[in-house]
Amino acid sequence: MIYQVIVDISNSNVDRVFDYSCPFAIEEGSRVKVPFGNRTIEGFVIGTKESTDVKTKDIIAKLDDFTPVTPEMIALSRYLKQNCNIRYADSLRLCIPGKLRGGRIKELTRGFLRLDVSKEIARTLIGKNAPKQLALLEEISPEGEFESILAAGYGQSAVKGLLAKGILSKTVVQVRRKPLKDMDGAAKKVVLSPQQQEAVETIYNNMGTTVLHGVTGSGKTEVYMAVIDRVLKEGKSAIMLVPEISLTPQMLNVFRGRFGDKVGLLHSGMSDGERFDEWMKLLNKEATVALGARSAVFAPVENVGVIIIDEEHDTSYVSDSNPRYHTHEIAEFRRKYNNCRLVLGSATPSLDTYYKAVKGEYKLVKMTARANKRAMPEMEIVDMRKEIRAGNNNMFSRRLLAELDKTIKAGNQAMIYINRRGFASFVRCKACGYVPHCTDCEVSLTYHKEDNRLKCHYCGKEYYNLDVCPECGNDKLSYGRIGTETVMEELNKLFPGVKVLRLDNDTTSSKDSTAKILSAFAAKEAQILVGTQMIVKGHDFSDVTLVGVLDADLSLYYSDYRSNETTFQQITQVAGRAGRDDKEGSVIIQTYNPAHYVFRFARQYDYEGFFEKENNVRESTSFPPFSKIVRILLKSENEEKALRAARDCYQRMRKIKEEKTGLFRVQAMRAPVKRISNEFRFQVVIWIKTEAEKDLLPRIYAEADDLNGKNVVTFVEVNPINMR
Ligand code: ADP
Ligand code: ZN
Fold it and tell me: How many domains does the chain fold into?
């Protein structure tokens, strides 16, 4: 038997199958130690065959006493290699806990001791010369087992002495670490509403992809759980994905309440040991519901009955560092492999997803009412230009201040959302709200301080910076943006004595600080929560009656073709945090551009209206879903070499454009961030027709790989989320 091995080295030069022989039998999916060149390294067995033409070496050893990679994950790895240009080693690494590699993790064990003789006999056996052993003996209970750490206080040698004399015996058992132990919420019993029941039926009966478009607070989680329930009853497993950061502890609570120990959590905010144990539980089928963020789409469960992506529009589902992948694509692969259901749930589905639903490629099911039977919270749009004209230069409008005051006096809670994203800023006229846009791409321009220019991040076109507003002639142009600290300070000044909490990247660097801040807010330890993107996601606080959005425009002018979509999503989602229980909620949106259609549709909770309008814009500008945008990033420590590679790349793409109709636009430029540490960065951006993807992508990948050389590194991204 010949074993096909992938060596665990992330490098294109060795990214292929190597043949090995082996004196003993090994299962496919095992990790092994193999000789490679003049060293030994770890590898994965991904297949077998009868014979080979090459002279083979023997596999040295099998590394684990279980098989870490399932047949499905092997198939996935082959798929990713072929279709997404992801190296075998990179995708296989995603299928196992990181610390398994290099044998850096073990199963956790706990020692138990038992007194095997009566204390009287023990005393005579110990004698008089071992006072520590005698002292320990007096402490321990004659009945049953006790944990060995209790005895450790008397010194290891005392314990060893008693073991050697046959007075104590020791047993070792394997234990599972349980992450976030106190998240063990009681199952809330609800009766599904008719629209929830209908959603469950539709999803369950569709062995394909279903889009669950349910307004915020419509009770999507209950729908997911009902479907999972059914699937588990068939003896199948489930994968439940939630966005990174904030949602997991809350979901975990609800899921543990419902499915108990059947839940296996895969999530980055855990220790390596915890992560390993949860993963093992899933691999062993002790747990059959995999719950986690993006990387849980690689959960080692088999016989999958349903895969659910909650808040499917969330950008954390796209991995933008190596290996670059779209969670939806992997979920789609697994759905086909298992012939099961895939659910894409959101109050604000991504345009790409909804477009497929409208075209009939996905099934669509809607939930239009909130589970608490209340109306959606009233949204009020405040024109900040009027505030300035009225002499109010504060970051809070008069309306928002009045509502904050009312909320605090009523003993309720408020959330203040600040949009802060990206690395560069746009220019805006403070008087009329004008923001300069690219004349070719319609995306807003980004201000580059270093050369005082305005640039389009898609086509690279540069513009002179403005001295005065071309619309109204005013010279009050703003570049800066407000941060969470400034807002905190202002609130402390305006509302002395009112407790304010803050949640952003700076406050959540430690492992469970996000969860801590959120639970402090849930426990009403503060009346106001100020935060960035992190507070947008599916939190369910019952006393929040006011949501304020400061500078809603910021994401509108983020230089990205998705900026309207993102803004609509964020406003709808953050508004959805208000009035979720039995208190009415209200939302105040501050903007310099109140006439923008994003606000008009968001205010009416008119997703369909927004979709139609935005979809038309995308069609006329040929942006996704009417195309795929491919970015080839070229980096080098040598600026000249990076530039030359970018020119070369550009020419190659031009050549493809001449040959094929599917590639219809090519641009080359410096990357938005010109230089990161010592590397100079250039990019070639290509627009291709969606239907030409299968034909063109392999060719583009191959060209980029070819340019990937000694001094230049290339990266290809399809529809990049965060172009920098
Ligand atoms: P979504 O994810 O759609 O925004 P959630 O799943 O968080 O909404 O549900 C919102 C709230 O409604 C939760 O507190 C949930 O427990 C409650 N809920 C869901 N379904 C029902 C129901 N059928 N009856 C009563 N309450 C429900
Ligand atoms: Zn442009």
Answer: 5
